[in-house]
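> forwarded from #structure-qc
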């Protein structure tokens, strides 16, 4: 018989919506899990380019409980301009990210895996929705998953045990405040 007090890991959480806070909420959750000594991994999709993501430095240097796997090309050029659109190279990087997920799942060792920006990456066709669903279903029933990003596919929402939609009420970006290191990236 299952003890009612037993803490069950292995649920699926989705953080989506247009407001700020999806990736940072996932990072906060991973940090909380790491505090208990849980084994965590974050796979970043479509998020190459080391300089734009401050948290990676502290995770690598100080938080061995959280492994990080950046994939994707750098979407921001040296002048700070964002590149839109999807190329074959983006899709190749998406495949690489999914292969990493497959390898991590096969190890059956992770308590929490964050799939950062997997929602828009799937929505844009950088990665294949059915492949993601297949991998999710093959994971150990004890591995909690967090899927982040805008435009979460309907199939992810249906599979999820938790869906939080970050709503855009205000964002300083629209007052002309540019992304600030340490707060926005
Ligand atoms: P964060 O990484 O700050 O938690 P996020 O994951 O919710 O943000 P993304 O859609 O991944 O948001 O966007 C990444 C970047 O865009 C972040 O720098 C974030 O601050 C900023 N941002 C988030 N929402 C908005 C918005 N509605 N308008 C403009 N910029 C936004
Ligand atoms: Mg994000």
């Amino acid at each position: 018989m299952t003890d009612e007090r037993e803490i069950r890991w292995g649920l699926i959480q989705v953080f989506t919506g247009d407001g700020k806070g999806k990736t940072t909420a996932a990072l906060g959750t991973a940090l909380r899990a790491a505090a208990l000594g849980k084994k965590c991994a974050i796979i970043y999709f479509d998020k190459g380019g080391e300089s734009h993501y401050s948290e990676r430095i502290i995770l690598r240097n100080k938080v061995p409980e959280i492994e990080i796997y950046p994939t994707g090309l750098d979407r921001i050029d040296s002048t700070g301009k964002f590149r839109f659109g999807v190329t074959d190279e983006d899709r190749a990087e998406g495949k690489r990210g999914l292969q990493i997920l497959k390898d991590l799942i096969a190890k059956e060792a992770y308590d929490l895996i964050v799939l950062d920006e997997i929602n828009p990456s799937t929505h844009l066709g950088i990665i294949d929705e059915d492949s993601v669903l297949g991998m999710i279903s093959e994971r150990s029933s004890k591995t909690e998953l967090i899927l982040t990003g805008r435009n979460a596919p309907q199939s992810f929402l249906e599979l999820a045990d938790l869906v939080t939609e970050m709503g855009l009420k205000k964002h300083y970006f629209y007052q002309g405040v540019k992304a600030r290191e340490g707060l926005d990236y």
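QC bot note: Residues 88-107 form the longest helix (20 residues). Helices lie at 22-35, 55-62, 88-107, 118-123, 129-138, 154-159.
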